[in-house]
Design a protein that fits this description.
Elements (H helix, E strand, L loop, with lengths): L17 H22 L2 E7 L2 E11 L38 H18 L4 H19 L1 E5 L1 E2 L2 E5 L2 H10 L11 H7 L12 E3 L3 H6 L7 H17 L3 H6 L5 H14 L1 H12 L3 H17 L1 E4 L1
Parallel strand pairs: 1-6, 5-7
Antiparallel strand pairs: 1-2, 2-3, 4-5
Helix pairs in contact: 7-9, 9-10
């Protein structure tokens, strides 16, 4: 119910020019959005069972980022594969030096065998090139990074506390961005106004899923999947990534929800797929995900 504005007593004083005030507010919002767009960082609001807070998120090519450091690394942590080069040493290997004539005979023999097989040797060289291309593509892929530190997400209950932290120079994972220094100089509390698509309500997901198929909120659940994937990657939570990976039951739920929301014949198929997904299984899975994310949050007042 809308609240009624109190009546003002008659006065000769000019009334506030509401259109002008509205225009000033709109200009302020536009300036804030221009700041975020220029620096390629966005404010994010996340609601968890323990509270609601603000943080920051950016997307950058993987090659430009150093993953957050965590004290206890899982041996199956997929984030280490990109940074570590495994060198296998075998003390039993022997280096055999051949004289020139024997070496030439081996070379000629190998060449004859390749010709007999119709193998020019080009394919052997192509395989490493393809692997290199795949590695380059992975490095160029944009990945999320949050205002976090040592594997913990920093969440601030007020815009003022977030701005204070950004200006403090305290260590965090976003400080590696080239635009971080400028943000720390220009950011004001009024700028911390997340867009609707950057506002996530993880605190409502489990309860919504428990309500049954007819009560499921597609927008709520799809957005929850997006932020959970981003957080699990940025904070290095392999277990959560696995639960949301392609082919998992929760990924099937996500795809069915998207199909149902897109309309058309795909929506009919999506709704049929949704009815095959158990509400209890989905809610239990998401309860685990929300719990794991909540466990790595560092609340800042």
């Amino acid at each position: 119910m809308a609240r009624k504005s109190p009546q003002r007593p008659d006065s000769d004083e000019p009334e506030l020019d509401e259109p002008a005030a509205s225009g000033t507010a709109a200009a302020s919002v536009e300036a804030s959005r221009a700041l975020w767009a220029e620096l390629r960082i966005d404010p994010v609001e996340i609601a968890l069972p323990t509270g609601t807070g603000y943080t920051l998120r950016a997307y950058r090519p993987a090659r430009e980022l150093t993953p957050t450091e965590v004290e206890e690394r899982d041996q199956d942590d997929p984030f280490l594969a990109r940074r570590q080069v495994v060198t296998e040493e075998d003390d039993d290997d022997e280096v055999v030096i051949l004289d020139e004539e024997v070496a030439q005979e081996f070379a000629e023999s190998d060449e004859e065998e390749r010709k007999a097989r119709g193998d020019s040797g080009d394919e052997t060289e192509a395989a490493p090139a393809e692997d290199a291309d795949d590695a380059d593509d992975a490095d160029d892929e944009e990945v999320p990074v949050f205002l976090s530190h040592k594997g913990r997400l920093l969440l601030f209950k007020t815009a003022e506390s977030l701005v204070s932290f950004v200006r403090s120079g305290a260590p965090n994972d976003l400080s590696q961005l080239d635009s971080w220094g400028e943000l720390s100089e220009r950011l004001e509390p009024a700028d911390v106004t997340p867009l609707d698509e950057d506002t996530y309500e993880l605190d409502l997901v489990v309860e919504n899923l428990r309500g049954g198929h007819d009560a499921w909120d597609s927008t709520l659940l799809i957005e929850a999947g997006e932020i959970a994937r981003d957080l699990s990657y940025a904070l290095r939570l392999p277990a959560v990534l696995e639960m949301l990976s392609a082919g998992s039951s929760l990924d099937d739920l996500d795809e069915a929800l998207r199909a149902a929301a897109n309309g058309g014949i795909g929506a009919f198929r999506g709704r049929r797929r949704l009815k095959k997904i158990g509400a209890q299984t989905a809610s239990l899975g998401w309860r685990t995900i929300v719990g794991k994310i909540s466990a790595v949050v560092d609340w800042r007042d």
